[in-house]
Amino acid sequence: MPAQNEFPIVYESLRSILKPYAKKLTVKNDTNELYYLDAAFSEKWKKELFFASAQVKKNYVSFYLMPVYMYPDLLKNISPELKKHMQGKSCFNFKKVEKSLFEELGQLTKQGFERMMKEEYA
Fold it and tell me: pTM, whole model, 2 decimals?
């Protein structure tokens, strides 16, 4: 079992997936254990919408991606390996750095961002 001392590296890797979106979204938290982004105010939903976060937990590092909950069809082409890391409808948990899965998650995040911006704010 990977040591928890790897969690900061896992967290930074997942956080780096989200950092490029900070320019267009609202950073709600940016600490050593939580990076949290909200989208702008949505007229459709009458509130700011949660976009994504990376968070260090006791037994793993979580990556929450709300667009996959809002648009489940985004998940239809994910790899079985990434699917194994899913918990619930929008959470991915990792205990170690898995570069290829993080790259795939980065592409999924990009697709989710583009879809959310197009459909929620157009």
Answer: 0.92
